[in-house]
Structure formats: C-alpha cells, structure tokens
Amino acid sequence: MSSTWHILGAGSLGSLWACRLARAGKAVRLVLRDEQRLAAYEAEGGLTLIEQHQTTQFAIPAQTCEGEGPIHRLLLACKAYDAAPAIARLAPRLAEGAELVLLQNGLGSQDEVAEQAPHARCIFASSTEGAFRERDWQVRFAGQGFNWLGDPGNPGVPEWFGDLSEAGIPAEWSLDILTRLWRKLALNCAINPLTVLYDCQNGGLLGHLPEVDELCVELSTLLRSAGQAQAAENLAEDVQRVIVATAANYSSMYQDVRAGRRTELHYLLGHACNVAARHGQATPGLEHLRQRLVDNLQARNLPSD
Ligand code: NAP
C-alpha cells in the first residue's frame, strides 16, 4: 500500500497537518478543489506554516480531485458540509481498503462519507488544536491541543499511526471516539449558538447560566438515549468549566458568523435535534435554540442549514 498522505483541503487544519507531515519527510500530496485553485497554489510555490515567530514554506505537490493515481490514505480536512460531496468526487480514485481520516467537527458527516465510500475504512478524529488561515496558502498554528483518532467499527491501530508522533502531531488512538465526539458536540451545543445569539465571548454566557443549565439537562438526557451515557457525565459542570476557562475566546460558530461564513450548525445542534427526534425525545429547549439561530442566520443572509 502506498504510504502517501493525500490531504483534501488546504484550509486551516489541512495545511497544519500537511506542513508537519512534510517537515518530517513524509510523502504528502494536496488535493485541491479545481484547476483554478491548483494554479493559484502553484503560483504561490507552497504552503506556509507560521508557528510562534517561525515562518516556513513547504513546496508540497498538489493535484485536483480528478488528478492521477489511486488514493490509499486520505486526510479529509474540509468542513462537515463539504465532506460527503468531496468524497463522492474522489470515490473513483479510492483504492480497495483505502483509509480515510475524517477531521470534521460534529457528527453526521462521518456517516454521509461512509455512504459514499462503502469499501473504505473511516477513521474519525476529534481535534482540539487551533489554526487559522491568515490568507490563502498560509496558516497560523494558533493553539496547542490534542487529537484523538478512532474507528468505531474496528479497534485496530492503523500501521501508519507512528507517522503522527514522528511529525510532532500529538495524537492518541481512542477506543471511545464516539463518546469524545458526542461530548464535544454537547459542549458545542450548550455554548456556541448562545454566543451568536447574545453576540458575546464565551465568558458572556456567565450572565445566562440558567439557560445554559436547561440545555445541559436536555443534552444529558439525549446522550443517554443515544447510548452515550459516559458523554453525559457531569456535562453541566464541564460546560461551566469551559465557559470560565475560555471566557475571553470567541466560539468557532461566532467567528464563522462574524466572518460571513457558513456554519456547521447542521452537524452540531442540528444533529442533536435530529437524533432526539429519532428517539422520540422532546427537546423543546434545543429546538427553540435551533429556531432562534436559524432566524438569526437568515437575517444575516447566511445559509441556515
Ligand atoms: P477551512 O479553513 O475552511 O478549510 C477547509 C478547506 O476545504 C478549504 O481550503 C476548502 O477549499 C477545502 N475544500 C472544500 N471542499 C473541497 C473539495 N471538494 N476539494 C478540495 N478542497 C475542498 O476549515 P478548517 O478550519 O480547517 O476546518 C476543517 C474541519 O476541522 C471543520 O469541521 C472544523 O470544524 C474542524 N476543526 C477546525 C479547527 C481549526 O482550528 N481550524 C479546530 C478543530 C476542528 P477552498 O480553500 O478552495 O475553499
């Protein structure tokens, strides 16, 4: 099997992973959206990583989805709403037994991807690292964090897992990746939409704790009905801890809205509401929150799905 890391999406996280893997001497190939993006990338001459005060450019080869050659290992580094359409385009190039590492936040996109690539192994990731694009092809590593990777259908550690530590990417193979993703989703549902509605940093929610607590009660019940009792443990306390620890930060959803970008709402709060409906659980607080958020996004002419 080829050991090349194909990386789809040279955005914030995709570039961060690509530069670190390339720096460690791993074979990396970027997969870009179309010929126009490929030409723009080639004119730039590579991806630039800014870490603290060090700026380094990496001349990583790139191609489009329709490029040549089979793909054995792919890091899917686009937003959740782009994941399944991107894999549908790449499907003809996926080798038998290809491994896909899915970096998407939230839940729902992983199943959509698996439907498009039924013969591939889908490895789910949950990342607390932070990166943002200062401009095209230039990424700033903004927050140290950690990555958990796991496969709900197969506990075996992939043979390439050691590449990550060799590249300085902090990561652990997780046997409870779904629990991690659900817990992160619940934290996100309790914090991010309210920061958009109240137009505040995370710490601003200290003035709305009864509302946050009510959401946590519904979310905990939902997690238990979805078979994720462990993800429900001490949720309200953890949400308050995160609000205090990140009081000066703006949530990712807040930042997306402020920048006029589409949010990943459908794979976060939307997923929670959909799973609750599937289990016949009434979640009036979450439903009301979703409706207020949809109205807010529509008033800003942003996609609300
Ligand atoms: P991003 O900066 O918007 O990058 C996404 C990239 O995907 C863009 O470069 C986009 O291309 C590319 N893309 C979309 N569809 C494509 C296609 N069909 N073919 C090729 N490229 C395609 O997003 P991000 O911040 O890295 O986030 C990726 C995921 O990681 C999200 O689910 C996010 O929630 C999660 N995450 C991010 C962070 C972070 O710090 N950034 C932290 C934790 C989790 P164009 O440039 O052409 O638009």
UniProtKB/TrEMBL annotation:
Gene3D superfamilies: N-(1-d-carboxylethyl)-l-norvaline Dehydrogenase, domain 2, NAD(P)-binding Rossmann-like Domain
Segments forming domain Ketopantoate reductase C-terminal: 176-289
Substrates-to-products reaction catalysed: (R)-pantoate + NADP(+) = 2-dehydropantoate + NADPH + H(+)
Superkingdom of the source species: Bacteria
Domain Ketopantoate reductase N-terminal, chain residue ranges per copy: 5-151
Pathway involvement of the protein, from the record: Cofactor biosynthesis; (R)-pantothenate biosynthesis; (R)-pantoate from 3-methyl-2-oxobutanoate: step 2/2
Pfam families: ApbA (PF02558), ApbA_C (PF08546)
Broad class of enzyme this protein falls into: oxidoreductase
EC number: 1.1.1.169
Record carries keyword Oxidoreductase: yes
Alphabetical keyword list: NADP, Oxidoreductase, Pantothenate biosynthesis
InterPro entries: 6-PGluconate_DH-like_C_sf, 6PGD_dom2, ApbA, Ketopantoate_reductase, KPA_reductase, KPR_N, NAD(P)-bd_dom_sf
Reported function: Catalyzes the NADPH-dependent reduction of ketopantoate into pantoic acid.
PANTHER family named among the record's database cross-references: 2-DEHYDROPANTOATE 2-REDUCTASE, 2-DEHYDROPANTOATE 2-REDUCTASE-RELATED
Family classification: Belongs to the ketopantoate reductase family.
Record's protein name: 2-dehydropantoate 2-reductase
Species name: Pseudomonas machongensis
